[in-house]
Write a structure and sequence with these properties.
five-stranded antiparallel β-sheet, 29% strand, alpha+beta, binds uridine-diphosphate-2(N-acetylglucosaminyl) butyric acid
């Protein structure tokens, strides 16, 4: 089924809470519908920009969108293969990511629990390579099914072709705009294997049995305590990516800031939490216009009410400039500016 709307409010489709409109908004419930509507656009020689969105949890609109927003309502969570150790689960791009995690936890499938409560949908998980608490979705994904925009062909892309890296994939870079993801297949474990060594996850679990549900609940509690609920205050989670810097630069900074947190990347590189640097610059809790820096996690920019995309972008620019001046490091938005 295809639902099409014109002059459509995107307020329920962007967690930043920007009150903007799309000239056209189309939702489809199957892969065949998507292929048909792409065929139709080619037949009509439609030239307006296309913007496929998921849950709108990583978008910042600077104003109304003059093109067509496409939203997948393709559902389904199905086991497509199984052996003694693993289960391969194919999920529709329009499934809410956290519903998928809840399903994995309730079915006793291991691997997605650390990624609990991340806003967004299954299709976007494969674009953004979502990650939290030491887990990244790239380690679960085996295959991405997509439709090529220029041909309406269905393609099956293996995980090793997706060029996954920290918050990166080929869908954000070389293949940006080329495919629309319809299904993602994840491989999950059938026997207990937990990764709880990140940050305070282990402490949060102290005194509790280690199960899929307790890990999921611990992750939810930590997220709830640090990250603002987009239903109450517009935000898009981490606004910036954590920068990866040369080890020599890191060593210079560490001499100045011995308590600086960091994550090892490889022999030559170290990742530094952007939230810590923004916090050090004194931005935590501050505002510029109606946009602000969250008071419990400086990596998150918030809409304090009625902020425009331009106000948030101005705040982001000011924060980036201060981090650059103090630490000599460029930080880049994880959020996509539209
Ligand atoms: N920190 C501060 N002040 C702050 C924020 C952080 O000092 O205001 C310090 C913390 O104390 C800690 C370090 O910086 O030592 C890292 O903080 P945190 O564990 O909160 O994680 P993060 O690196 O800031 C990343 C992800 C989050 C994810 C968490 C937990 C990115 C861009 N962000 O944040 O992802 O939930 O780790 O795994 O990698 C998201 O993508 O929307 C998101 C929330």
């Amino acid at each position: 089924m295809i639902h099409q709307y014109t002059d459509y409010s995107l307020l329920p489709h962007n967690t930043f809470g920007m009150d903007v409109k799309a000239a056209s908004f189309i939702e489809y419930t199957s892969e065949d519908d998507l292929r048909r509507l792409l065929d139709e656009r080619r037949r009509m020689q439609a030239a307006d920009p296309l913007l496929p969105i998921g849950g709108g949890s990583n978008l910042l609109f600077s104003g109304d969108f003059c093109g067509t927003v496409l939203h997948s309502a393709i559902r389904g969570i199905d086991v497509v293969r199984e052996d003694d150790r693993f289960v391969w689960v194919k999920a529709g791009a329009g499934e809410v990511w956290d519903d998928f995690v809840a399903c994995c936890v309730s079915r006793g499938w291991y691997g997605a629990e650390n990624l609990s409560a991340i806003p967004g949908e299954v299709g976007a998980s494969a674009v953004q390579n979502i990650g939290a608490y030491g887990a990244e979705v790239k380690d679960l994904i085996t295959e991405v099914e997509a439709v090529e925009v220029s041909t309406s062909e269905v393609v099956h892309i293996q995980a090793d072709e997706c060029r996954y890296a920290y918050r990166q994939s080929i869908f954000k870079n070389d293949w940006k705009g080329r495919f629309i993801i319809t299904y993602v297949t994840y491989r999950l474990g059938k026997s207990p294997e937990f990764h709880i060594d990140y940050g305070n996850l282990c402490a949060e679990l102290e005194g509790k049995p280690l199960t899929l549900s307790t890990v999921r609940e611990a992750v939810r509690r930590i997220r709830d305590s640090k990250l603002p609920d987009p239903r109450k205050q517009g935000n898009a989670g981490s606004f910036f990516m954590n920068p990866v810097v040369e080890r020599s630069h890191f060593e210079q900074l560490r001499a100045l800031y011995p308590s600086m947190p960091f994550y090892e990347v490889d022999a030559a590189h170290v990742k530094i939490p952007a939230g810590w640097m923004i916090d050090q610059c004194g931005w935590k809790g501050r505002s510029l216009g109606r946009a602000g820096v969250h008071d419990k996690q400086a990596l998150v920019l918030v809409n304090r009410g009625g902020a425009t995309g331009a106000e948030v972008m101005a705040l982001a620019k000011a924060v980036q400039a201060d981090v650059k001046a103090r630490f000599g490091i460029d930080i880049h938005p994880e959020v996509n500016y539209i």
